[in-house]
């Protein structure tokens, strides 16, 4: 079974359970949306499991705490929200040292301070390997929440950063490289320390121009497919327009790896993937560059249909759902 099939089973369960008026969005977005009075809350959660999401051979406790919190923050950013507070539940073996835990907590505190997050609870348990679950609550103004489900035919598809860097970083870590290898340090940092696009997400929400948005966690082949499925549309992206860093190209060349595999399916870049009306995209690009000192990249357009196609040299390839899936792929292989 693929991840989307399992999610569909949970949706079937949800259909037979109460759906309260304050629930404005449930399963199949980056976060659930709850309304209490005039306040809209965004609620997300993510799980990190040793030897599935990371290995201690190349992941420090400091990096693990940062990333576990950052990926949740990214979910809130992907809906245009502001992160507020979180809970953390952690399981670890008896041999997990006090020094490791102190390093983990130091990073957790530093990251929470950086993003102005309150820690409001959690749980601890002994387990055979390290397991971390963070649940994060954010907020967004009424009318400014961006869902996956409102992309329109003719929209231009944009991303906010390079694609494939994090996947390349993982490949380097598995080959024994570290952040001190300066030629590839940007790739390793992209894997270990992804930067949630909170300011950009909030700015895009405030413009009212973005029709649909998601963060790139499983690769654009999968994440763009989610937008298309939820919006009832298709998409075409152009290979020559995909933003790829020189370091990523060099790593793929050195290790004789298909660069497009990292770019389309690698995931964990945690940049924002969004759609904008064609008439607005150039003005939006200029405004973002001026106000946030940041570039965004046009990679394709929303079309009729229900498939995601890669266009290259006049040829069309169906890449729908060809990103990472926990139930058919592995980012990390156990020794």
TrEMBL record:
The keyword Transmembrane helix does not apply. Residues 29-139 form the PurM-like N-terminal domain. Its EC number is 2.7.4.16. Mg(2+) 4 binds at residues 30, 44, 75. The keyword Acyltransferase does not apply. ATP binds at residues 122-123, 148, 217. One of its GO terms (biological process) is thiamine biosynthetic process. Substrate binds at residues 53, 268, 324. PANTHER family: THIAMINE-MONOPHOSPHATE KINASE. This is Thiamine-monophosphate kinase. The gene is thiL.
